[in-house]
Amino acid sequence: MSPGSSSVRREFSAATAFRSLLLPTAFAVAFVAFVWNEAAREALLQLLFPGRFSYIYERVSLAQLFAEHVALVAISSALAALVGITLGVFVTRPIGRDFQPIVQDMSSVAQTFPPVAVLALAVPAIGFGFAPSIVALFVYSILPILNNTISGLDSVDPAVVEASRGVGMKRYQTLLLTELPLAARVIAAGVRTSVVINVGTATVGAVVGAGGLGTIIVSGLVRDNAAYVFSGAIAAAFLALSLDFVIGRVQARFYDARTS
Amino acid sequence: MIEFRDVVKRYGEQLAVDHVSFSIPEGEVCVLIGPSGCGKTTSLKLVNRMLEPSGGEILLNERSVASISPDELRRGIGYVIQSVGLFPHMNVAENVGIVPRLLKWERARRERRTDELLDLIGLEPQLYREKYPAQLSGGEAQRIGVARALAADPPVLLMDEPFGAVDPLNREVLQLEFAALQRKLQKTVVFVTHDLDEAIRLGDTIVIMKDGSIVQHGVPEDILANPADEFVRRFVGTDRALKRLACFEVSEYMQTANTVTRHEAEQRGREPNGDGRIHPVLWVTDDDNALVGMLEPDPDHASRLAYRPYVALHPEEVGVQPPSSLREALSRILGQGLRAAPVVDERGTVLGEVRLSDIEELNQKGIVR
Ligand SMILES: Nc1ncnc2c1ncn2[C@@H]1O[C@H](COP(=O)(O)OP(=O)(O)OP(=O)(O)O)[C@@H](O)[C@H]1O
Ligand SMILES: [Mg+2]
């Protein structure tokens, strides 16, 4: 290798290191400071919104709201992933094939309901608070996961599935050792999309008293306090970006059909 | 032993395998050959129950395969799949170790076995264990496919065009490697191919199929000598006499060679063999018995014992080794314009000779017109 190309290589890896390490670290530090350090947040907000505001939401700490938000997203997304992947597996098996159109239609329809409407329907059934929000978010999150599970499993080369049977794998072993590993990247992409959307959608939970970052945003809108709205929005955006990054990292570890 | 008993396979209306019966003795290679779509792959898949027959049955060591659960059956039968069929998301070690893993071998035993197999197929374990199928050449991938099939040391192998996807040169290398491996391992093998030369080289017996039926079943030299009908005659080609020579080993037709060292030849002058007789070919060696040249009689000379001037030879150009085929011997003889080809070992030592007249005689006896 010529010296020229090796130095290009070094620059390249420095750039990669910056992108893959430095940037996320800086990002995380800013994030932690903003959510958990009230003095730092207040200073920043004063700079951005000079004037007559109350900068710090007095009823609940931003850290508390953030934790609630994470809980909303984590529980509803985990349920959606569990159900979406299971359904996706079921409708791609010989016994479930017939249900594939129905299941896909149902989840598409669920996706077209505005989340607020789902909440409105869930509240009379379950009551106010955390639970109806979980239901609404769950229903709303299934579609991308289900669709990606189906297309991921359908794109597995039938010859590889046949080879699995040929070496003596049982059906469940073929699913676990061949089909899911080969579809994992596409499924993870579905989970990633779903989770990122979910972080945004979860803010509506505040309407029915589920807590989360929606609380401070709604409060800011009601009181015409831009600093509150900004605090909630930024924390939610940080959360969405972080989750996108982390799931992206996991996704990158899975088998990639394009590079082989 | 594998036995097909009146086996039928229908795909809807279409008859893919039509009342097929034949058997393969233990330790033998049976090659299924025939035009595309004649039912070779279908027949093969009936053995490990990738497909179920519409009629008849297949016996494995006198036991109907239908009575064995498919998964259990398949773990006991090595299967090399048309177009390789390696798992793209598993590295070489994981691919080779998959059947042992399904059989719940301990990790250490699995790893030992994997390395052993990589050695067996001539791929350095250190270098190849961690590679993924996408990082292998076609020939390497085919070898790994064979290694995977051998992993749990099954007595039976099913091979569906295992060397179909490599260039002719590499294919020949793979065939020779497989032949050597088979001599050592003595598996019962069903081998599907399109390539008649491959069938002749590897098959103890050959089954020629057409439209789902067997048209001829026999040892290669008989099929080439006596094609059953017009179809087989056309299938094996007009050069079947030549192809048939590939069925015979040089070692079986080797005759004693007359040799003289160069030293002696020079000392004795015009009568170099020194026994008062004249030989069609006199091979000349150096003091270590390695072939260096030859002498041929000179019919125009006044003395009946005279030879033509000495001709230098290179053993690697004219010599054949004992495991080579008569086809190769003939090619050397014709290529060099000789009456016989010297049989040599790796060092060039003369072991004997194969005569053109013997090859001609064999040919006239065997081939029926
Ligand atoms: N799953 C299937 N459904 C319907 N017909 C099939 C199926 N598989 C094979 N066939 C038909 O059965 C016949 C035999 O097919 P098979 O794959 O055994 O041929 P083959 O001898 O292996 O051919 P090739 O040399 O091209 O691999 C063909 O006519 C093929 O079209
Ligand atoms: Mg075939």
Explain briefly what this protein structure is.
Chain A is mostly helical. Helix content of chain A is 78%, strand content 0%. The site of adenosine-5'-triphosphate has 11 residues of chain B, from strand 2 and helix 1.
Could you explain the architecture of this structure?
The complex is a heterodimer of chains A (260) and B (369). Chain A is an all-alpha fold. Chain A has one domain (58-259): MetI-like (MetI-like fold, Orthogonal Bundle). In chain A, 78% of the residues lie in helices and 0% in strands. Chain A has 10 helices and no strands. Chain A has helices spanning 3-36, 38-48, 62-92, 100-112, 115-126, 130-154, 158-166, 171-201, 214-222, 226-252. Chain A is flat. Mean pLDDT of chain A is 88; it is low at 1-8. By secondary structure, chain B is α/β, with parallel strands linked by helices. Chain B has 2 domains: 2-247, 3-Layer(aba) Sandwich (Rossmann fold), CATH 3.40.50; 251-366, CBS-domain (Roll). Helices cover 36% and strands 23% of the residues of chain B. Chain B has 16 helices and 16 strands. In chain B, the strands form 4 sheets. In chain B, strands 6-7-8-3-9-10 form a 6-stranded mixed β-sheet, sandwiched between helices. In chain B, helix 5 (107-120) packs across helix 7 (138-150). Chain B is globular and about 80 Å long. The two termini of chain B are 34 Å apart. Classes of the chains: A mainly alpha (260), B alpha/beta (369). Chain A binds chain B through residues 157, 159-160, 162-170, 173, 177-178, 181-182, 255, 257, 259-260, and chain B through 48, 50, 70-75, 79, 81, 83, 85-89, 98-99, 102, 132-134, 148. The structure holds adenosine-5'-triphosphate and magnesium ion. Residues 40-41, 82, 160 of chain B line the site of magnesium ion. Residues 11, 14, 16, 36-42, 194 of chain B line the site of adenosine-5'-triphosphate (ATP).
